[in-house]
């Protein structure tokens, strides 16, 4: 299943339901991510960065941030795990331009971004938990890339498929990826049948007894 | 006064002002509800549900949720009092479809919803305090319906008129309903006179002394 | 440099970067202000008001609020420092109408506003941290005007240039105003060169080494 099909046909709620059924009930974030640039859906494979706050002059400013964006591959979603820090806007117009150039599909930031108006004009998908005008230099920096990171209790492994939409963010562990996607496709059909039956006047209770999904 | 007139001519701020004047200074919520589906105004009579978090397998999944949506009456606003829990998305596309079928005008959720993109496509009014992709099954459930519920210190009684708009949510106790609506209609006129006088150059201080409203 | 030029050519991130470089690293707010009326940018000179919660009947309702709006000058941005209180909607349609009449460019409220739909219809710029339907009378009042106020650790002095946009809010101390604006204009050019080089395929690391800005 290619990333475009997944983006167009599936959504986080159905992925979460299938992961529940397979015994993975903790694959979605609950903290509110805002689609800052007005684009409400993003799918790709995790390219992870781990960030830390800092309080001294950085002798190598932006060192690993630049490596991260310059090493993006087509279809990557850049994950910035900054523990929700609001110390600076760690992702902005120039990193967005550089990562898009390498084929990056968008960015998920557990922390703050800046240059929102410019990234919106670029139509670059950005999901973040905060915003402020401060430069990251001497305030925050990447301390590791391409490592597992945890956001709101959910593990994002490099290469995992991640989807962000209006409801939230879901990560699919790679060893169940094919199974999850196939079952999600089937569940979408079952939900459509249920919805159509209800639309045609069936009561919700009867629809649930009949189709077994809600 | 019918619900359409109230929705088109009145707003939460003027209802709150009249309730203040009548000695009911605690009829509006202060916590931020988001109009998730892009529809900024909702008026109707409260159809209440009380929710609880759960941590075991539910032997009767969705039991009272289904009863609640299937027993909605035209003009009802479904109130989901879930104490702001972000454990799951307790209201989504199928419950929205079912409740709309019974004439429900929209839903107010003190807690999380999911399927936001689909409910926006349905143009179904949804005011909620959170969002996430998780199914409510085995996570949260309705434990009572058609009972008084309290959200942010405000009591929502079954049958009370409730209004949600960009400013917040106001509930009108039934025993003062007619008086509140009549006085609100009068106050709207007084506010319009004040605003027009200011627009025409009167200073705000003089306008307040002249018309007595702000 | 006039206010229109500043608004059209500059933005909070570049002002913050220049203030960093000049040794003023604490001129931007980090708490999230919402552009409630859909207008994402506001520039002007601070007209400050300091608010306090109250719990008794006000013998002079709205006294200093009215003085504040009636004494606005063209290009002023009204600053309402209410310590983030959500006790009432302290700024609404009538104060917006009155302050606009005096040439006020918009309002920044560290606290709640109301009449959001009406102020959006007026196209009046409003940045606020909360919203609710309650009247301020007997709940909050202005206790000082035209005094320095502090919001989220940032000092807003009367007459300082303030800018609010999608990223946040930045205040420029008056004694460095000309220097900041001139340097910001230069930095915008350097950023544009960097962005264009990256767009044309230069890696981010090389671009940073070449142009020295990010």
UniProtKB/TrEMBL annotation, chains A, B, C:
Pfam families: RraA-like (PF03737). PANTHER family: 4-HYDROXY-4-METHYL-2-OXOGLUTARATE ALDOLASE 3-RELATED. Its cofactor is a divalent metal cation. This is Putative 4-hydroxy-4-methyl-2-oxoglutarate aldolase. InterPro entries: RraA/RraA-like (IPR005493), RraA/RraA-like_sf (IPR036704). It comes from the Bacteria. Coiled coil: none annotated.
